[in-house]
Amino acid sequence: MPLTTARRAKRRGPRRFTSRDLAVIGVLLGIPVLLDLALVWGPTLASIGLSFTSWDGIGDLHWVGFDNYRNLFTEYPPFWPAVRNNLLWVAFLGLVATPFGLLLAVLLDKGVRFSRFYQSTLYMPVVLSLAIVGFIAQLVFSRDQGALNAILGDKSHPVDWIGDPDLNIWMVLLAAAWRHTGYVMILYLAGLKSVDPSLKEAAAIDGASETQSFFRVVLPTLRPVNVIVGVITVIEALRAFDIVYAINHGRNGLELLSVLVTDNIIGEASRIGFGSAIAVVLLTVSLGFIVTYLVQELRGEKKG
C-alpha cells in the first residue's frame, strides 16, 4: 500500500502551491522584506542622497555635490580623531579583549573548581547596555569620587582619568573590553566543548605539547567561532556610541564617528546633509570589513 501511494505521488509530480499557500508565503516573506526596506535600506539610501545636499531639515534641498565630503576631510577638526578612535576601538577589542576572552575560555574548559561561578561572573557585564557600562566607568574613573582614585589614595593629586584626553580613551576602552571579553569567552567556551577529544589525544600521541596541540589542532577547528567573534568585534567597535555619550557626550578625546553623526543631524547644528556624509563614511568603513569577510567565506567554501 505505501509503495502504491509513493508511485502515485511520483506520477503526479511535484506538489503545486495553492493560492492559500502562496498568500501565506507572501505574508511571511513580504513583511520582513518590507520592514528591511523601510527601516534599513530606505534610510541608508536616503542618507547617501542627503550627503550631497546642504539640507538642514526645514528648508529646501540644495545640491552641493561633494562639498560635504571635502569639508569633512579638510575643514572639520573632530573627524580624523574620531576615525582614529574608531580604528583604535577595533584594534583594542580585536587584539586585547578577544585573545583575553579566548584565554579565559581555555582555562575554564580545563574544568577548574567553581567554573560555573566564574562563567556567570565574567558573563554578567554582557547583559548590561553600553550606556550602563559608561555610568559604571564614571563611578570607577571619576576624578573626585571615583573608586580607582580612592584605591590609589593620592587625594592631593587625583588623576583625572576621564577628563584627561590622553587617558580617557584608554579608560573607556577598558570598560568596553570588560563587557566584550565575557561575550567572547562564552562563544569560545561553547566552541571548545564541541572539539573532538580524539584530536587532542592524537596530537599528544604524536608528541605535541599542550600549546602546540592548541594552536595546531584545536584553534583551526574553531574557525567558525573565529569568524563569528571577528564579525561581532567589528560590529561592537563601529557601532560604539552609548558608552562615550553617557560619559561626556563623546567630547574631549572620546570622539567617535557615530557621535559626530548624532551631533550634526539631531544636535543644535542641524546639518543633516553634513551629518549624512559622516554616516556614509562610517557605512563605507563597515562595508570594507563586510566585503572582506564575505570574500574569505566564499574562498573557504570553494576550498571545501
TrEMBL record:
Q: Do you know which InterPro entries this protein is assigned to?
A: ABC_transporter_permease, MetI-like, MetI-like_sf
Quote the subcellular location field of this record. Answer: Cell membrane
Task: Pinpoint the ABC transmembrane type-1 domain residues.
Answer: 83-295
Residue ranges spanning the membrane: these are: 21-41, 87-108, 120-141, 169-190, 272-295
Q: Which GO terms describe its biological process?
A: transmembrane transport
Recorded hits in Gene3D superfamilies, A to Z, give: MetI-like
Q: Iron-sulfur: is it a keyword of this entry?
A: no
Q: Can you list the GO cellular component terms from the UniProt entry?
A: plasma membrane
Query: Where does the source fall among the domains of life?
Result: Bacteria
Per UniProt, the keywords (alphabetical) are:
Cell membrane, Membrane, Transmembrane, Transmembrane helix, Transport
As for membrane topology, the entry says: Multi-pass membrane protein
Question: Could you say which protein family the record assigns here?
Answer: Belongs to the binding-protein-dependent transport system permease family.
Put simply, this protein is called: Sugar ABC transporter, permease
